[in-house]
User: What shape does this take?
Amino acid sequence: MVREISCEDVARMIKTSAPLTVIDVREAWEVEICAINGAVHIPLGDIAQRIDEIDTGKPVAVLCHHGVRSRHAAMFLMSRGVQDVFNIVGGIDLWAIDIAPEMARYE
Assistant: This one.
């Protein structure tokens, strides 16, 4: 079962420089519209080939648009032995609503 983490908790961790790796699994065109500063962009389709780029020495929080692709990515990471992995509930869309209302949104 994939553990979940709220946008608020991720924002708090980023703000306080708590150890956290944010992986954004959206497509490049989505990241061009809006993104979380410091997030590592690895599209879902590339995650298997680029898993070595993920710093698993700290918690990993996975992000997509609404939370579906990120859940799949988190399940994949767990199947590869990554233990401290979370799905960011609501994705970048909820992030834009709750954390960064100035952020561009898309459908």
About this structure: The chain has one domain: 3-98.
